[in-house]
Amino acid sequence: MSIIDPEATAAHAARGVGRLIGPLLLLSLALVPVSWWLPLFVARVPFLWREEVSIASGLSELWRLDRLLWLVVLLFSVLAPAVKSGALVWVWYRLPLSRARPLLDRLALLGKLAMTEVFLLAVIIVGLKGVGIGTVETSWGMQAFVAVVLLSFASSTWAWASLTGPVARPEARG
């Protein structure tokens, strides 16, 4: 295993406000798993039932009800965002600049898969509201979850843009 020269990484090449990219990627990596436990919405049937639903509780219930849907939600809401966040931090801090850009291009697919989780949640909420028996109200966790997804999207987009622009070119040393 070769030792990476820390001066050859994207983190070292970043200048000005671009130095915030790495810490934002780390923050995103830390917040993605936390978001799985936030209450996304509250489903209620008057006088009978009330339940706060998070990604974690939804996965638990899906395991019991529908293994295929459980697998889809696990893939798009848990694995894709976690792998994407971890890989972005690794690329930013550990990979040489010459290899960072092509790998970030490949990670863009994971970013697209991770963004589908917001769409999936919207479909679930619309479906539950359409049943007409009870009510579904979005909870504070939904806004926090969307904010985490947007932070991840923005920081990864910023990282990619910084590696395609002038920041990606190493400074001439003489």
Helix-strand layout with pairing:
Elements: H1 10-13, H2 21-35, E1 41-45, E2 49-53, H3 55-65, H4 67-94, H5 97-131, E3 135-138, H6 140-164
Antiparallel strand pairs: 1-2, 1-3
Helix pairs in contact: 2-4, 2-6, 3-4, 4-5, 4-6, 5-6
How do you describe this structure in short?
This protein has 174 residues and is mainly alpha-helical.
Task: Describe this protein's structure.
With 174 residues, the chain is mostly helical. Helices cover 68% and strands 8% of the residues. It has helices at 10-13, 21-35, 55-65, 67-94, 97-131, 140-164; strands at 41-45, 49-53, 135-138.
Total of helices: 6
Helix content: 55-70%
Oligomer state equals single chain
User: Which stretches are low in confidence, meaning pLDDT under 50 for 5 or more residues running?
Assistant: 167-174
Based on secondary structure, the structural category is mainly alpha
Biggest sheet record: 3 strands, antiparallel
Number of strands: 3
Question: What sort of overall outline do the alpha carbons produce when their principal axes are compared?
Answer: elongated
Order of helices and strands: HHEEHHHEH
Strand content: 5-15%
Rg calc: 20 Å
- Straight-line N-to-C gap: 30 Å
Overall mean pLDDT stands at 79
Spatial order of strands in the largest sheet? 2-1-3
